[in-house]
Known about the structure:
single chain, mainly alpha, 2 domains, signal
Amino acid sequence: MKITAIIAVALACTAVAVEAAPAPFAFGRFRGQNAGAAGGQSARAKFIAAFKARKAAEAAAAAAAAAGDQNSAAASASSAAAAAAAASQQNAAAAATAVAGSNASNLAAQQAAGNALVLAAEQSAAASVTQADAANSNDALVSAADAAAAADTTVSDEPLPALSAAVAGNSAATAATASGNANADGLQAARQAVVSGLKSMKSTLDTLATANAGVDSAVDAQIAQGRIGLGKAAAGVRFIAAQLAKGAQPTAKAQEFVGAGLNQAKTASTKLTALTANNAALSTDAAAFATAVDGTITAGQEVVADTAAA
């Protein structure tokens, strides 16, 4: 048996001996010493010793295997397993805490990735609207509105934070200039409902993504499609809001992205409903997303109808 394997075995034995010491300490005690065992090792020191033994044994096993020394490799592998068991038992509470922290970190990363996907879809749609409007319109008001809308490229708890204010502003202007028009109040309410719907779409998608936690890749794929649709629709609404606020008529390209985005989200919703039908927790979240999508589509249709009647 090679010297590296012998050392590893010795270290592993030390780790196992450590494990035979008094009962392991909870995670909260790792920062201190064992108050009941004067001169004894702290739980953290015991864990570190076992951990180092495992790492040394693993390295020895790898080296022995690479050199073709199967006997030493087997002995070192056995030592590594023993040391790993000692480390695991000595640090069970810490391991649970680490797993919880890792899960929280993964969820935060997943949320960031989801936001980035929505933002990328928004930016792509914004570029398309700006390009199409520049080619198809000589309206200075449209150009100014598009420049303002394109400058807002952030995403947070609501799609495009300035969206609510922009829609509220042009809705109020519509009501003020359409005194006596029975559709004015309905139009304002419908525009606000579209924005609320987009916010609900985002929050329900986030909830569904968290519940799935990457377990079902097919579900994650449709969540991504829903987020892309959300980004497109949000960008379209943002441009329409800016155009109306500048006194311009909404452009066809901006309206096109609202419809295309909501249709894409609707398709994703239908697929999510089917994919989660046999999962009680996920099906509830998928149903909430479907409700948000349908409500936003209905509000959008009302905006179109009330605008035509105004």
